[in-house]
Structures are given as structure tokens and as C-alpha cells.
Amino acid sequence: MHLPGGEVTFQGEHYQLAPVVSSPGSVQRPHPPILIGGTSNAALQRVARVGDGWLSTGLHPEHLRARISTLQKLCEAQGRRFADLSLCHKLFINIGEARRGTDGSRDAGTGVQADIVDDLRRLIDLGYSRLIVRYRGSNADEQLKQLRIFIENIIPQV
């Protein structure tokens, strides 16, 4: 296998790739950043061992604090600096209607705009530098409306 860009081949046990030209190659060296998702202890162990960052989803900012503390300890055990990891959170938005989680609390990213601004501020305070935003509905017009409100009204307040 060659570095990204140029001619690439691969001969593995289950897959073979005849010579192909990959152009342009990746600008990141030695590879693009690897974000590992999941909130279980096993997922956090993988992040601490080999990840360039952590992609969390589905947890409210208050619950993320404990997971981050665990990740910090796992990084120390691996001899890695937690500060070198990139933290990214996937947030499911529903502006204007609060959704309730299994514990009965409001899901982060849902409800009135002020609540969502507070959710984002808490994520930043926890050390998050990246965010993936998704609207769960299937109506394209509503999705566009939700994203427009998020971009125009919520992000400027953070």
C-alpha cells in the first residue's frame, strides 16, 4: 500500500485492489484524522489507544462530563495527552419543540432557541471544538427551516 495519492494497490485476505490512481491525495499526513464514536467504556478505550478524536452523540452535556473524565484517565493510562484529542459532538436538533429523553429530561438540541444556545455553550465549556448537526425529520422543507434557524439565530449567540 502506498501513501495517499498516486497509484494505490492492496492485496489482503478478503479484498484485493488492482492498481488505481488516486488523485488528488489527502493533504493530511500520515492520514486524515480518525474520530472514534461511541460512549461505552470500550469505545473510549479505543479513542485513548488509537483515535485522533472522539465523536460523542446522544448524551446530554451533563452526562458527557463523566465520559470525558473517563476518557482523560484512559488517555493517561495509554501515555497519551487528552489535550491532543479533538472532541466532536453530533447534536440532533428540533428547534421549537422539546424532545424528552429516557430519563424525562429535555434532549440537548431541542426546545426553544435559548435552551439550544445553552446546550452549545456547555459543549464548548467541556472542550468541544466541532459539532455535527442533524434534524431527524424527513420533511425536506422543515429540515431546511431548522438548519436556517440554527445557522442564522443560534450560532451567532454562541
List keywords for this structure.
158 residues; alpha/beta; TIM Barrel; five-stranded parallel sheet; two-stranded antiparallel sheet; 7 strands; 35% helix
Provide structural commentary:
Helix content is about 35%, strand content about 25%. It has about 160 residues and is of the alpha/beta class. The chain has two domains: about 1-30, no CATH class; about 35-155, TIM Barrel (Alpha-Beta Barrel), CATH 3.20.20. Strands 3, 4, 5, 6 and 7 form a five-stranded parallel sheet that branches. Helix 1 crosses helix 2. The radius of gyration is 19 Å and the shape is globular. The relative contact order is 0.11. The model has no long low-confidence stretch (mean pLDDT about 90).
Percent helix, as a range, is: 25-40%
CATH topology of the largest domain: TIM Barrel
Average pLDDT taken over every residue: 91
The largest sheet, given as strand count, sense and whether it forms a barrel, is: 5 strands, parallel
Going by CATH, the homologous superfamily of the largest domain would be: Luciferase-like domain
Q: What radius of gyration results from the CA coordinates?
A: 19 Å
Q: Kindly, what is the distance between the CA atoms of the first and last residues, rounded to a whole number of angstroms?
A: 44 Å
When the domains are counted, the total is 2
* Overall SS class: alpha/beta
